[in-house]
């Protein structure tokens, strides 16, 4: 009888704050905190449950850490029909890779999952209070932002429809699929030259669209000329495509150039502004500054994946794994 009453009151106490959280672990700690007494405490809250966050969760779940992953479900590679250059998963649909990874981590009973968006974080002594769009409040001893980047689509007719399908940002990810095709580069200066170096090997024809009079240096122009790469100094005003598959670019000067794919790197921003509002520093490129352990400029706040490093799934997984191990040792030292 006593046991059943205790059990009931425990369930009542937890039901309010935990509704909506898929709890794999029922042993949540409710440590006293005057303002957030009902907010459950986790060893680690991972914000972002895509490749980098899932990789960190795996290391932490295998270390018996009490982890909550909160994910809003919009990874950056959603427009891409297939993903490449990640060993064992080459050519898979991006969502399928993430699905397999999520199944892997939810096998570990100390890992919980919440479909929600983190909107606010606040440091309170040794803990960070996290708030979500659906009104949940949770506390973490360590926070890991695995929140990725958001690409900003330029105001160019056809661009967003082609992005991820036939507008490419990375030759390693999608260059092979367009080998021997008619390829363009929309860009100028060192960025365009760097793309030309990498992409020339794939293309039967390669043209650079500099949008305006080119900033390429003479030595670069000469090298491009030697390699048969045309520089077209006119603004691209429209992309002709069928269901996102590029057919031609229309230029300001009236010319239409037939193309199968276009390399371009759009501007980006941090997908989640919470770490910056919390006080984490950014690099000049707009990435979160991290040390070799993936810790940001704030103690106890970590970052991994695209928000702080080179954009690729293998790197996201590597930095996530590094962050998971670094957070685990950080907690181990504190508790020992
Ligand atoms: C079009 C395109 C194609 C690509 N193709 C390839 C490829 O073929 N091969 C390859 O290796 N790489 C590819 N990449 C790069 C690769 O997708 C990224 O490097 C990888 O997705 C980074 O993983 P991540 O976990 O850091 O971030 P993401 O995968 O972007 O995931 C971030 C996660 O955090 C969540 N999130 C953000 N803010 C919040 C918040 N406030 N609260 C809760 N959750 C939040 C998001 O919803 C998302 O689920 C491609 C990228 C793009 C844009």
Short description:
By secondary structure, the protein is α/β, with parallel strands linked by helices.
**Would you give the CATH topology of the largest domain?**
FAD/NAD(P)-binding domain
**What ligands does this structure carry?**
flavin-adenine dinucleotide
User: What's the name of the CATH homologous superfamily of the largest domain?
Assistant: FAD/NAD(P)-binding domain
| Rg, Å, rounded | 24 Å
Q: What is the 3D form? A: elongated
**Helix content range of the residues, please?**
25-40%
Count of extended strands: 17
Runs with pLDDT <50, length 5+? 1-33
Q: What profile does the largest beta sheet have?
A: 7 strands, mixed
Alpha-carbon distance between the two ends? 38 Å
What pattern of helices and strands is seen along the backbone? HEHEHEEEEEHEHEHEHEEEEEEHEH
CATH class of the largest domain: Alpha Beta
Number of H/I helices: 9
Count of folded domains: 3
Give the percentage of residues in beta strands.
Answer: 15-25%
Please identify the structural class as seen in this structure.
Answer: alpha/beta
């Amino acid at each position: 009888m006593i046991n059943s009453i205790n059990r009931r009151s425990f369930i009542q106490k937890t039901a309010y704050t935990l509704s909506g959280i898929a709890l794999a672990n029922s042993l949540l700690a409710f440590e006293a905190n005057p303002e957030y007494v009902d907010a459950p405490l986790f060893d680690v809250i991972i914000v972002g449950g895509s490749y980098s966050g899932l990789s960190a969760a795996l290391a932490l779940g295998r270390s018996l850490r009490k982890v909550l992953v909160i994910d809003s479900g919009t990874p950056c590679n959603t427009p891409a029909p297939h993903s490449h250059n990640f060993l064992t998963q080459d050519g898979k649909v991006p969502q399928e890779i993430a699905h397999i990874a999520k199944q892997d981590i939810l096998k570990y009973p100390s890992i919980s999952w919440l479909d929600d968006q983190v909107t606010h974080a606040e440091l309170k002594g040794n803990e960070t209070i996290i708030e979500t769009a659906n009104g949940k409040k949770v506390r973490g001893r360590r926070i890991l932002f695995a929140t990725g980047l958001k690409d900003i689509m330029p105001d160019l007719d056809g661009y967003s429809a082609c992005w991820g399908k036939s507008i490419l940002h990375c030759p390693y990810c999608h260059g092979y699929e367009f080998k021997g095709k008619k390829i363009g580069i929309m860009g100028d200066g060192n960025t365009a030259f760097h793309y030309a170096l990498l992409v020339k090997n794939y293309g039967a024809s390669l043209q650079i669209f500099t949008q305006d009079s080119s900033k390429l240096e003479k030595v670069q122009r000469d090298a491009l000329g030697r390699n048969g790469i045309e520089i077209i100094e006119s603004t691209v005003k429209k992309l002709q495509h069928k269901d996102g598959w590029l057919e031609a670019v229309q230029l300001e000067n009236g010319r239409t150039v037939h193309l199968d794919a276009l390399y371009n790197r759009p501007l980006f921003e941090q997908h989640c502004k919470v770490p910056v509002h919390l006080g984490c520093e950014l690099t000049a490129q707009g990435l979160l500054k991290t040390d070799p352990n993936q810790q940001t400029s704030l103690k106890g706040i970590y970052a991994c994946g695209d928000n702080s490093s080179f954009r690729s799934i293998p790197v996201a997984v590597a930095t996530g794994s590094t962050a998971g191990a670094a957070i685990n040792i950080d907690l181990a030292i504190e508790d020992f």
